[in-house]
Each structure stands twice: as structure tokens, then as C-alpha cells.
Design brief:
36% of the residues lie in helices and 9% in strands. By secondary structure, it is α/β, with parallel strands linked by helices. It has one domain: SGNH hydrolase (Rossmann fold, 3-Layer(aba) Sandwich), CATH 3.40.50. The strands form 2 sheets. Strands 2-1-3-4-7 form a 5-stranded parallel sheet, sandwiched between helices. A two-stranded antiparallel ribbon has the order 5-6. Helix 4 packs parallel to helix 5 and helix 5 packs parallel to helix 7. The radius of gyration is 19 Å and the shape is globular.
Length: 282
């Protein structure tokens, strides 16, 4: 079992060393003859699965309501973002051109199996699979307790598939960026109506225009519960780690949000990449 006390990059190095010593065909596909990488702690192929948080959706004001994958915190190529891919590239040139984003806007845990199947086709096979999910799985209609069990089962099926199809890959789940309270704090300074409504997860009471702390706490409790499920399921797999909930501590500025207020701008994507990079190297 991989120790939870070592960084993902250290665990990856051990995994790559073992697969090389066992004559794995996977390692032979990376970098050709000779040493595969200058620094074997870092992956030579990366895949990202999940929702629009990974696709750079709406991150370019000149291209509204569009995926701009170059701006993805995970696999993007825009230097202004300095994605995980770009940070790995600086350490391991063998990863160049081997960052695959198969995330789908609006996806839930139901589509992760299909995305995993696409990631499994990538060559060279990914050494690192980044997963960003949760958001679209939250029901906010009173049925979330009934959804927790099926969510756990479907997530387990996804990790079983990764374990089977990508036996050399490390899996890394990222938490939802910013707490509910932090997100509401910033959106209230931009457009309070954006988070107003009468549902249990709508933090602003449309009659008063003020935040209802009960609704904030309710939505946060749902996010926390889904994250607990992710953490528990992940802990059962030796090659799976999470960011430990670090993205929930993200401090937002107005400029970190895209125009729709539901996604991150290029600035926000850069901030997320920096936080996840630190978590990967813990």
C-alpha cells in the first residue's frame, strides 16, 4: 500500500521504478531509448477527467460560454495559467504533448466511467489521472441522502476501472474550490441575485437580499458529505490520493471568477494550479 505520508510524486517515482524493473511495456513507450525522464518523480503522461472545472470553460472573456482547454489548471498550455502539465514539463520534458483532458461540461459521476475509458486509450498511458468532480452531483432538492449510496458505488466502479486499465497510474482527486461562505462573500460584491432563490441551497433570500446562514451551512454540509465519500473510497486504493480538501481553503478575489460567476477565470485557474501543485508535492 502507498503510504499516505509520502507525496504523490514520490509514490509515482516508486511506481515507475517498479514497472520498469518488471519490464512493463508502458515505460518503454515513454521517451524512447535511454532514461525516460530527467526526474522520474514526475509523470510522463497526464489525463484529466471530470466536469467543466477542468475544461477552462468561460475562462476567456473574448470567448464566452466556450471551453478553452489551454486555460485549464490541470492540462492547459497557457503560460498565464502555469498548469500542472506546464509545471511537470519544467521538471520532466518527456511529458511534452502528453496531457489529455477528456472532461465533459456538466458531467456527474455517471459519466466518469466513460471518461476513464477514453483516458485508458491514451498513449503513452497516463502516469497521473487528475479528477475534479462533486459539483453537478449535488442535488439540493432534499434527495442527497438517497444519492450518497449510489454515488459511492459509482465512484468505486470508476476507481476499479482505473485500477484495472491504468495499473501504473496515480489517481489524484481535487476538492471543490472555495468554501460556500467564501464563494458567497465574493459573489455578494458582484451580483447578489446570482445566488438568490427560494431553494435550500440558495444562500440569498430574494425578499431581503441578505445571506441566510442556514442555507450556507446546508449547502456546505452537502459538499462536505460528498467529499467525505470521495476521501473514503480513495483511501481503499493504494494509488489514490486527494488534495486533503485544500481547495476549500482557496481565498477568492473578484478577478478569480469568470463572467458567469460559476467558473474560474485565467487568474483563478492559475491560483488553483498553484494550490494543487503544492498538494501534489506534499
Amino acid at each position: 500500500m502507498t503510504s499516505r505520508g509520502v507525496s504523490l510524486m514520490t509514490a509515482l517515482a516508486v511506481g515507475l521504478a517498479l514497472s520498469t524493473s518488471c519490464g512493463s511495456g508502458h515505460s518503454s513507450e515513454v521517451g524512447g531509448p535511454g532514461p525516460a525522464t530527467p526526474d522520474s518523480r514526475y509523470p510522463s503522461s497526464i489525463a484529466a477527467i471530470g466536469h467543466s472545472g477542468l475544461t477552462g470553460y468561460n475562462s476567456d472573456p473574448s470567448r464566452p460560454s466556450t471551453d478553452v482547454t489551454a486555460n485549464s489548471w490541470a492540462t492547459g498550455t497557457n503560460p498565464a495559467v502555469d498548469s500542472i502539465y506546464q509545471r511537470v514539463l519544467a521538471m520532466n520534458p518527456a511529458v511534452e504533448g502528453h496531457a489529455t483532458d477528456v472532461a465533459i461540461d456538466g458531467s456527474t459521476v455517471d459519466s466518469l466511467l466513460g471518461q476513464e475509458a477514453e483516458a485508458a486509450k491514451v498513449r503513452p498511458a497516463p502516469d497521473l489521472v487528475l479528477v475534479q468532480s462533486i459539483d453537478n452531483d449535488v442535488k439540493c432538492d432534499g434527495t442527497d441522502p438517497q444519492n450518497y449510496g449510489p454515488y459511492r458505488e459509482k465512484l468505486t466502479a470508476v476507481l476499479d476501472a482505473v485500477d484495472r486499465d491504468l495499473s501504473g497510474a496515480q489517481i489524484f482527486f481535487v476538492s471543490q474550490w472555495a468554501s460556500v461562505k467564501e464563494y458567497d462573500r465574493v459573489v455578494m460584491t458582484i451580483d447578489p441575485d446570482h445566488i438568490a432563490g427560494t431553494g435550500p441551497c440558495d444562500p440569498v433570500d430574494p425578499r431581503t437580499g441578505r445571506v441566510d446562514p442556514k442555507h450556507e451551512r446546508y449547502l456546505q454540509s452537502l459538499v462536505d458529505h460528498y467529499w467525505t465519500i470521495i476521501s473514503e473510497v480513495c483511501a481503499k486504493y493504494s494509488r489514490c490520493r486527494t488534495d486533503g480538501g485544500v481547495m476549500q481553503t482557496m481565498r477568492l478575489g473578484k478577478g478569480d471568477l469568470a463572467g458567469d460567476l460559476d467558473h474560474l477565470s485565467m487568474t483563478g485557474q492559475h491560483k488553483m494550479a498553484a494550490m494543487i501543485w503544492s498538494a501534489l508535492n506534499r
